[in-house]
Design a protein that fits this description.
Number of strands: 0
Radius of gyration: 32 Å
Order of helices and strands: HHHHHH
Helix content: 55-70%
Number of helices: 6
């Protein structure tokens, strides 16, 4: 999943850069005149999602963000599939491309998270009691213990007896 997520992250950055830098050319090529601001905002979304995919430890939330973005892209492209659009063929090709990428996004987002916890050496404490000597030898060992002076409660703070 990590490799596919990284590839989708780089794809998002590239697509977002094109949509951000040349929103007029993108929207005019698809017959979506007057949608320059929307295409530019979609480019910003793609850049943010791509950067998040490339830097996140767990890319799944950002893969789901890509799936949601694909739904927005399909909604915009659907408006360009009308009979009045002279660039209807380009809009149809772009729609099919987005459907293909959306399928990849969905496959990547639905993959279960693999817990690749590093195997560490585990200490064995089954036969240890935590005492330096057997329990019978330790009984009464603290009978003559006196609390050090600096650990004692000062006389003004002692409770009344």
């Amino acid at each position: 999943m990590r490799g596919l997520a990284r590839g989708l992250g780089w794809f998002s950055l590239a697509l977002g850069a094109v949509e951000w830098v040349a929103p007029g050319r993108v929207s005019d090529a698809l017959g979506l005149r007057g949608r320059h601001r929307l295409v530019r905002s979609f480019g910003l979304r793609e850049i943010a999602t791509g950067a998040a995919l490339l830097t996140a430890r767990d890319p799944r939330p950002f893969l789901w963000a890509r799936v949601a973005g694909d739904a927005l892209d399909l909604g915009l492209l659907a408006s360009g599939l009308g009979r009045r659009n002279p660039r209807r063929g380009a809009a149809l090709a772009a729609t099919l491309a987005v459907v293909g990428v959306a399928a990849l996004d969905l496959v990547a987002a639905r993959q279960p998270r693999r817990n690749r916890a590093r195997r560490r050496w585990v200490r064995e404490y089954a036969r240890r009691s935590g005492m330096p000597r057997p329990a019978n030898d330790m009984r009464g060992a603290a009978a003559g213990f006196e609390v050090p002076r600096d650990f004692r409660i000062p006389d003004p703070l002692r409770p009344w007896s």
